[in-house]
C-alpha cells in the first residue's frame, strides 16, 4: 500500500480495502490516525500503543474478539492531559478479549486515578476520600469512585486468570492480598517494575502463580528491605517451584537478601543480576554444595554488579564451579563502569585460568571493564572453551611481528596511510583480522577493536 504524502499512512482507499488483513499494529499515538483504522482494521491479534489515550479505546473494542497480545503505555505528558482517562472502560474492554494471553501496562492507573473533573486526578481523589469535612456531594462522588475502583480491580484480576504473560510498570494496582486463595494457573511470565506495592505484597502475588517460569522484579527503593520472615511465610520453593528465569536487574536489595531469595528458587537456570549488590554471599550460595544452581545454572549476567567482596582469584575459582554455564556477563554497560577499582583483571596472571572448567560456555561478555585480557588470554579461552561462539568486550592489542607478518602475507596487511601519507602499521586491524581467520566460528563483537598500549609493547 502506497503511503499518502501528507501523513505517512497508507492511502485510505487501499487501507479500507485491505485493512482487515492487518494482524499486528504498533504506533506511537492514535490521535491523528484513528479515522484511518476504524472500522477497516478489525481483526488485529497484536496491538501496541506507545501513548495510550481515550482515542485508543474504540480500536481496542473493535478487536476484542481476535486480540491475543495488548501493550498499552502512557507517556508522562499524557498523565497531565485535561481529559479524564477512562480506566474502567479500558479494563472492561481488555476483559472482553477471550483470546488474550499477553498483557503489558506501563504507567496505567488501574486503581485510584479516576478523575472527576479536568486536571483533578489524584488530588481530587485524595481530597474526597480523606477529607475531614466531607459534603454530601463529595461523599457520594467518593463512594462512586470506590465502587469503580473495586470493579476495575475485580475485572483486572479476572483477566489475569486467563493470561500467560503479564507485565506491569509503574502502576498503582493493589495486589490481591485479601484474596490469597486465588491461584493464577495459566500465568507463566510475570514482570513487576516499580509498582507501588512493597516486596511482601509482590512476592505474595508471585506465590499465587503456581506455574510461573519467568519472573522479573524491579524496585528502586533503597530504604526498603526484604524480610526473611516474609520469604519463609510465602514459601516460593513450594508455592511456585517452576521458576527457571529470574531477572533482578536494578533491584535495590542487599547481597544477603539476594542470597535468601535465591535459596527459595532451587530450579533456576537463568539469573540476571545487572546493577545489583550481588557479591560474596550470593555467589557463595550459588556455588555451594547444597545449592542445585551449581549444576544447572546456564546464564549468569553480573553486568555492573558488585563483585568486590571476595579476592579476585577466589571469585574466579567460584565461578568455575558453574560447569553448565553457557552465558557469562562480567562487564559493565556504560563508560561510568569502565574504571571501577573492583572490576576483575581477567588475565592469566590474576586467575583467568581458573575458568577452564566452563566447557559449555557460548557467550562471554566483559565489555566496559578495566582488565588485562589480551591475545594470550584469548588463545587460552579458545583452547579450553570449544563451544564459545560470541565474545563481547575490548581485547588489548600488542604488537606481534610474527602475527603481522602472517597476516600481511595473506593479503589485507596491517598497513594504513598516516597523516603525512607515510605507511604506518595498523596493529588493531591486524589483530582483528588475525582473530577472524584463526577462529572463524567465533563472533567477536564490534566493540572489541584492539586497544594498543605502547607502554606494554614487547621490546
Summarize the structure in short.
With 459 residues, the protein is of the alpha/beta class. It is built from 16 helices and 18 strands.
What does this structure look like?
- This protein has 459 residues and is α/β, with parallel strands linked by helices.
- The chain has a domain at 311-459.
- 30% of the residues lie in helices and 14% in strands.
- It contains 16 helices and 18 strands.
- Strands 1-2-3-4-5-6-7-8-9-10-11-12-13-17 form a 14-stranded parallel sheet.
- Helix 4 (87-95) packs parallel to helix 6, helix 10 (255-263) runs parallel beside helix 11 (280-286) and helix 15 crosses helix 16 (427-438).
- The longest helix has 25 residues, at 136-160.
- Residues 1-6, 113-132, 412-427 and 447-459 have low confidence and may be disordered.
Number of helices: 16
Low-confidence stretches: 1-6, 113-132, 412-427, 447-459
Which sheet architecture does the biggest sheet show?
A: 14 strands, parallel
Mean pLDDT level: 78
Q: How much of the sequence is in beta strands?
A: 5-15%
InterPro entries: LRR_dom_sf (IPR032675)
